[in-house]
Amino acid sequence: MIDVEETTMEQDTEPAAAPPPPPPPAASKNGKKSEGNSIFSWIFILALLGVWTGVGVVWFDLVDYDTVVGSLSPYDVDGDGRVGLEDAKVLLGLKEKPTASEPSQHMPVTDTSSEENVISGLKTEAEHARAETEFSNPPSSNEDSLDIDEGLTADDATSHLDREFIPFDSTEINFDSVRQDDKSLNTIDTTGELVVEAGPEETGHSDSTVLYSAQFGDQQIEEADPPAAETAQEETGTTAPPEPAQEPRTAEDLLEEAPANTESKPETSESATQPEPTEPEPEESAAAQETQPKPETPEAPAASEAPQDNTQSNTAEETTVKKKKPKMLNKFDKTIKAEIDAAEKLRKKGKAEEALRAFEGLVQKHPHSPRSRYGKAQSEDDLAEKMRSNEMLLKAVNTYKEAAELPDAPAGLIKAALKRRADRQQFLGRMRSSMATLQLLVQTFPEDIALKNDLGVAHLLIGDNQAAKTVYEEVLAVAPSDGFAKVHYGFILKSENRIEESIPYLRDGLLSGAEGTDDGRFYFHLGDALQRVGDQSAYEWYERGHKHGHFASVWQRSLYNVKGLRAQPWWTPRETGYTDLVKMLERNWLTIRDEALSVMNASSGLFVAEDENLREKGDWGQFTLWQQGRKVAASCRSVPKTCALLERYPEATGCKRGQIKFSVMQPGTHVWPHTGPTNCRLRMHLGLVIPADGCRIRCTDQIRNWEEGKVLIFDDSFEHEVWQDADRYRLIFIVDVWHPELSQTQRQTLSPI
């Protein structure tokens, strides 16, 4: 046997073995040794970098390819529009340069046949949310006026235009007072007057149809003298090809040249288009409207028939005709088209400041270029919205005028510039200036139906319904199927209490599906007219208006709305949260009644007859203590105790969308079904003198009666109706309060009604 210990010692005394040699390098499949990084890998990485660099250049628009291509034009020696092999041969001296007599393979840039394609990529100027409420006039500019041969004498014009435009309050409208996401709220009250509001929390019915009210009071809108045509600085530094040495044209010149420039066709009104999130450019808008055909007059349904939705079919008919784009470049502007396009590209990208600098440079170099000056006006317009600056917007208004008056301005550019000018003047509350611009447009383009429709709207804006009526009668005489004219003419007839006559115009106008007719105001008035003649199809039109998004429901048809507020016809004091106010009224009802009776017995004429055209028959008088959150001091002197009781309740006295008043109704009175203008208030009725029988009020489908010394609370944005069939008068005290779910901020910022 082998001794284990000896074996161990022998192993310990042996020298250490050498470390094993490193493994041989792995051989590749082709028998060659592999290296740490192959050349192929590096090539692959570099190729990927190149691809991604190219993607980045294209994606982030790091290279202006139009400029690059334009910079190669000196090397296009043969004039074929591209740099190719033949050009290289010439540059290398291998071939002679072609002479001027050699025909070019491409048309020159000044070819007039391509004029209609010049503006194919331009967008239409978007309308600012029409904030035509709460106007006060911005400072008058010496430049914001227009020399025009209006076709009216100065006295005639003054008789129509001297009516003042009173806003709901004295807050000056400007970009600071209009949120960026606000849209114009075109609304209606129950008087047959079209009214508007643009409160910060409004969620009503957004469209850009302009705002009407014949109930505004008188406030002078000052207009300034026209600006100088051009400054000396703009006349110098011209580097362009020779330009015609003509003076800028005045409005009178435009009128004289109108037949040559007019390319108008009947069109639907632009004033009622919906504002879009993006801002299309005026050229496309003008093109779309110049050639838009009018739908045929739909056959009016019988009085009892349900409305048929023909909107889609009519719209399809309107779009079957290809729309012709207006010409925006004259012959000279085509020679500088590349410069204009480069500046326009900046504007389209939203770089308003850079675009403005570019167009200003073009105007200095080419003072007689209409398209350059029009681009300057558009850039000022864009920048005004970005800066929320009325001052900048006034500059744009005047630059639009300058562009339209320049020599050789194309008819399409004149129309687009003046239409945008009129729109911006309305936005600024300059109704007289806007009307003057529209009158010039109508005289310059007499065949353009849409411009006449816009002029009718302008008359409605200053409360001149008769002038508007005349305009729409002229439109319907030449275009009897014009839906826009029909709904507006029907509205005017209804405001004159010609109820039955108004119905076919309102109905046919809505059925036409014409632009600007799908508006809650017209559904409201058509339904109201039908109700007054006893036609139950009124509710079918209300339902249609609800489905189109104009009404919260068939019953709740107010248009000055804040979203999300609790909606129910009848309320309890606990639900309102105003229990202290209700208790105070009911505890002091005798004091309130006695003061009201003293005013009635004095025969002082303080009770004023209801003037909102809500009565079918009878006698209904009101005596107001607070109106739109403002105390009527003279009235409170007659009922001092009542007013003192209310001073402690700001939910009532501070309600800018309501009233506090006494209401007396004589026997035999019936108040038509109607809705209040807003969902922002609740209405309290305190019974003071209530006959035992015959007096009742309906709200939706629920009928209730008043009690002396008790308060009824309802939401008057829901349909309600009143009957007074008793043998003596009924006297109540009406107190409007803010909707309890409105925040303090909303109560402070919502506009008055």
Please tally the helical runs, counting DSSP H or I stretches of 4 or more residues.
29
Q: Please state the structural category.
A: alpha+beta
First and last CA, distance: 122 Å
Unreliable stretches (pLDDT < 50, length at least 5) are 1-17, 24-35, 100-320
Total beta strand runs: 15
Strand percentage:
5-15%
Percentage of residues in helical conformation: 40-55%
Major sheet attributes: 8 strands, antiparallel
Overall shape: elongated
> What's the rounded overall pLDDT mean?
73
- Using the CA coordinates, give the radius of gyration: 37 Å
What does this structure look like?
The chain is an alpha+beta fold and 753 residues long. The protein is built from 29 helices and 15 strands. Strands 3, 4, 6, 7, 8, 10, 13 and 15 form an eight-stranded antiparallel β-sheet that branches. β1 and β2 form a beta hairpin. The N and C termini lie far apart (122 Å).
Short description:
The chain is 41% helix and 10% strand. By secondary structure, the protein is an alpha+beta fold.
Comma- or semicolon-separated keywords:
alpha+beta; eight-stranded antiparallel β-sheet; five-stranded antiparallel β-sheet
